[in-house]
Amino acid sequence: MKQFIINRILSSVIVIFGISIFSFLLIHLIPGDPVKIMVGINATSEQVEKLTHQMGLDRPLLVQYSHFISNLIQGDFGTSLKTGRPVLTEIVERFPETIKLASAGMLFAIIIGISMGVLAARYKDSLIDTFCMGIATLGVSIPSFWLGILLVMIFSVNLNWFPIAEGTGIRDVILPAVTLGVVGSTMISRLTRNGMVEVLSNDYVRTARAKGLDERLIVFRHAFRNVLIPVVTVIGLQIAGLLGGAVIIEQVFNWPGIGTLAIGAILSRDFPLIQGIVLFMGVVYVTINILVDILYSIIDPRVELSVKEES
Amino acid sequence: MVVKHLKKSYLLITVFILSMFILAACSSDKESTKDQGDDLNQSTPQSGGTITIAATEEPDTLDPHKTGMNVASRITGLMGASLLTNDPETNEIKPFLADSYTVSKDGKTITLKIRQGIVFHDGTPLTAKVYKETFDRILNPETGAKVAANFIAGIKTVSAPDDQTLVIELVVPSAPFLSNLALEGYLQPLSLTAIEKQGDDYGRNPVGVGPWKFKEWVNGQSITLVRNEEYKWSQSFYENKEKAYPEKLVYKFIKDTQTMIAALDSGSVDIVNAAAKDAQRYRNNKKFEVLEIDSQGIGLFLEMNIENKILKDKNVRKAINMALNKETIIKAVLNGEGKPANGPLPPTIFGYDPNVESYGNKYNQENAIKLLESSGWSKNSTGIMEKDGEVLRFELLTDSTHKQPAQIVQAMFKEIGIDLSIQTIEAGTLMEKVSKGEYEISFLKYTYNDPDVLYILFHSSQIGGLNHARVQNAKLDALLEQGRTTIETEERKKIYAEAQKIIVEEAYWAPIYTQKEYYIVNKRVRGLKLSNSNGLLIHDSWVKQ
Amino acid sequence: MTKLSEAYKPIQARSIPKAPLNVKFDTLKKIMSYKRAKYCLAFLFLIVIIGVFAPILAPYNPNKLFYDALLQPPSKEHLLGTDAIGRDTLSRLIYGVRVTLSVSVFALGITFVAGTFIGLICAYIGGVVDNILMRIMDILLALPSIILALAIVAILGPSLTNAMLAVGIASIPGFARLIRGAALTIKSSGYVEASRSIGSSHSWILRRQFLPNVTGVLIVYTTLFIGVAILDTAALSFIGLGAQPPTSEWGTMLSEGKDYLYEAWWLATFPGLAITAVVFSVNFLGDALRDVFDPKSKG
């Protein structure tokens, strides 16, 4: 167990190291000279040279990279070209909003996913089953940005139930979170259904049924508890997925999170910010994955083996 | 059994959803009738409340010297004030923070008397010395002032012989200089004590002398200003001579225009800068008012790189001018609410020559084709012009805001046999490429308050800057230099009339249209006015509670 | 925007032992026996036909401007209405099929070829090579696919080709991992060992043992990936980082239509429906295929 966790953390460190290389290289891969953008069109070549030197962009790559890393370790992600503020500050200010959106989205994904899954399994092969699983497939098929627009048109513009661009309170988070939740619920509802179906066909459930136990009791007491483990895992994995999904949804709902920050940064070619976001998101992702893996290996020891064999 | 049961619940859900929609339709009806009884003519301003303004862009910084963004200059303008001001009615220069001003005979020395009793939000009194320090900060290369520095570029020295007197010496006389001093955003006085205290954070904690004080900046969302209780030095054209009526002013940042409109509908914002098509929908809406004004500038023009070997030919440039059916473009892009532009200046800028309507290059496909043919081009089998085996093909470089006109122009070019491809790139990259001359054809728009804009756009010294067409015309250069140093208005007008004629005849540009500026305002907010030189005039407005 | 890796991981985590899968001639018959799969296939076939015969089927040139018919609601002349600069929405939708099809093929091609190659190499060679390649894949997987795609578009600049490339590249790691995982299970099942012991060549083992055995997984996930590719490319176009005008790409059309939600509902509605319908069919088909090839996971 300990060995597994240590291995997992070690390999994550390597991955984070790799991400740092990738994001470091970004600034060199993006076309256009970042220095020229910083000093403006009318700058003299002397100014450009001076700033290039100041930023260390004229030194060998390896030297630049070691500077980059040592700055990172001190928490210095660079300075945003647009606002002139530390990149880390920009990110840290926006990140909680994305987390808020993603967790609210997760909540809806769980509610929608589990209820659909249970319903489908309970009425296996009936119209309800087809309907629920159809909705689940629809969830991953509908463009999330379009769904978002539709929801805004219906619930904000026509019904005026939810505000738009008011702030980031509870009422504001509902529509984007539902959008995100619909997309994220697919995996959960499928797994819940399949797991439930499997369990419901087991001998002990059949016995329970034969004993004349109430069907609802069987579903909830016996079957549901048994499918929780895989479902919990998916939920863990979905957190990361939702963070990514939020990037697009944020655009539609004018949500002030990492997604709008990232797209704004790309459009205005704010290199240090793009770099910082890529790195930050990578680290967050890796951390979530480790936590999920470790948690899961605690819940279900069989996993340890299979993951080990994988890596 | 189960299936039957299910069908019933299906039905129920459908009925439920349908009734929700009907309910929604009803409730929105009710809302619009309720407002009819509203008393719109109430005219006693009430104090208190909040006005919320939507903006598509978020400022980079609120340090007016370090920003180059329009939205930043607007917001800092509310927190600041300027030496002089533009009267929105007469467009004349009037005193503001300066009680009076005199210009020396040679036009090189401007002496201003600073008004007494003005204090910054941090309590520092405003003196001539403070203004001098502000200008010095702009001129200091270490500040990195971008746009602000351009506005006072002609300054030789600034001095403050006493607390009340500010003397500005110019290198050469400059006609546009006085109107630059009316820029509340870029050229407002700054409290150096505050700048020293805040250091690098000043851009997020600005301090000015204006009617609004900085309160809070929530990254990615909004900037909140609160009224300056001490303020009593508003511009003479405002009725309100005291502090502002509302308690708070909020700028909310909403990137997408449709989201912005939705936010206006739902009441999250009160004022929206909108497109023509949206403004039209609100004209008959009882809950909203539409403010509109002719914009001071050319809304859209096609710029051509005359260093290009095909575009070097004046006939080709003229043909391009004649290929454009401006009315059609206006119909599609501006919902019909714009005017065709024939020259480089709009009627709203001083010096505009009305004769341009007659001598301008008009839409005429036949003549356009004839012009091309006279330069040796002829249509090939695919209907595209060809000369010596080379096809007449250009690339239009544009950003995403001009997607629509780009596609219309593409179709219009095709009709006279020019093959145009569209390349959409990000606005910053576009400016960089176009400034360097790495383009063939591009779109641009401008707003400016003085005909001196022609110097920036066509003078040979501006190649590499905004002279994107890369014009090097000695005669034009001389006229433009003369124009900026001539103070006498009639003479100045004549100079610019001549300059406009040259620009149109050489067809350096294909001007397309001038447009209006629209603001949709929730009628909760009263007394708001709009002027083309000053934008939104907020100080007389108040919120109906 | 479910990534392949996510779609796959839970199954991997449960580590269901997979029996070698074989694609036989009767597979198609089997697929057709699923009613919904049949309908989906028929629909997708129809879409392909529409794409191929777009010039014949479309009533107008998709880029022709009708100056006198701006923002027309659906009518006899323009069945699905016109957009702000007077282009026929139906014609643009029909031509848009071609873009969607090429996106699928192009992005899929990149992911499929590179992913399969890397996955098989890793599983087959193992050791250091496996370790290095998988760590690189891990690094790329550690970024949300949309962030990775955004980064790639930032490097390459916005265009349809670059968006497809970005979507394709962003999916390689997930795909490679999937193939590797499937191949590993087979490798450990013993009969590859057996054929090696009788002296079969490496390439023979790869071709005859590995590939046929992972075909089932491949087919299922490539089908599902098509849906992801279409959605992600549309999303990039939607935020302005994909197809450029006047390309009639569905995501771009949706994005253009979004500016006219109040005055022209048809502009955003039809492209949205088109994307949803195609991706839905693809996903449904993918699910049916999974039932065929991997009956164990079927409930």
UniProtKB/TrEMBL annotation, chain A:
Pfam families per UniProt: BPD_transp_1 (PF00528), BPD_transp_1_N (PF19300)
Record domain ABC transmembrane type-1: where: 95-296
Transmembrane segments: 9-30, 101-123, 135-161, 173-191, 227-253, 273-299
Subcellular location, record wording: Cell membrane
Keywords recorded for this protein, A-Z: Cell membrane, Ion transport, Membrane, Nickel, Nickel transport, Transmembrane, Transmembrane helix, Transport
GO MF assignments: nickel cation transmembrane transporter activity
Topology versus the membrane: Multi-pass membrane protein
Domain of life assignment: Bacteria
Gene3D superfamilies in the cross-refs: MetI-like
A cellular component term, taken from the record's GO annotations: plasma membrane
Entry's family note: Belongs to the binding-protein-dependent transport system permease family. OppBC subfamily.
Subunit structure: The complex is composed of two ATP-binding proteins (NikD and NikE), two transmembrane proteins (NikB and NikC) and a solute-binding protein (NikA).
Protein name in UniProt: Nickel import system permease protein NikB
Organism: Viridibacillus arvi
